[in-house]
Amino acid sequence: MVAIATDQEKVEKRLEKISSYKMPVVHAQAILMLAQGHSQTKVAEALGVHANTIWRWMQKNEFAELVAHSRSVMFEGMLNYVNDHSVEVVQVLFSIANAPPARRVSERDKVAAASKLIDIQFRGKQLELEAVIEDMQLQIQQLTQEIKELREGGTQQQTIEAKAIETTPIYD
């Protein structure tokens, strides 16, 4: 877990640097907690603010981008750690799952080891998909903001283009 802690420290240092740019410390703390996967409600409780406050902060592109960036740094650190040690973990689990009768490993332990191997694989895929979904949500949020800005201050042609973008289906 040293690699994870190191990457978390990197995120904390980055947030400290960011906080020097006139960001309140409470924002930096919220970013770190959200990046670690805590819910907005838990973050609000821990920081002594209302849950709606956290929600409003997340609506701001810069804040949401910092959360996403911090989460990706942490995620990358965890993946690196798992990748660095995955061979050993899989070997141990595989040896348990395929233990000969002489090792006296129960069938229950063999099934549990095999199940854990499958869980590890699925969890990795789930984390990858969550990262992709989060990136897509951020892109949608940014596009929505751009459309809003075009509607409010754009020319008639830009307003028409904004409406066209807004009505264009994202998925085929």
SSE inventory with pairings:
Elements: H1 2-19, H2 25-35, H3 40-47, H4 51-59, H5 61-97, H6 107-153, H7 156-167
Helix pairs in contact: 1-2, 1-5, 2-3, 2-5, 3-4, 5-6, 6-7
Report on this structure.
- The protein is mainly α.
- The chain has one domain (2-167).
- Helix content is 83%, strand content 0%.
- The longest helix has 47 residues, at 107-153.
- The model has no long low-confidence stretch (mean pLDDT 77).
Q: What is the mean pLDDT? A: 77
Strand content: under 5%
Tell me the distance between the termini: 42 Å
Individual helix count: 7
What would the principal axes of the Cα set say about the shape?
elongated
Structural class: mainly alpha
Total of domains: 1
Please give a handful of descriptors for the protein shown.
elongated, 172 residues, 7 helices, mainly alpha
Task: Give a quick rundown of the structure.
The chain has 172 residues and is mainly alpha-helical. The protein has helices at residues 2-19, 25-35, 40-47, 51-59, 61-97, 107-153, 156-167. It has one domain.
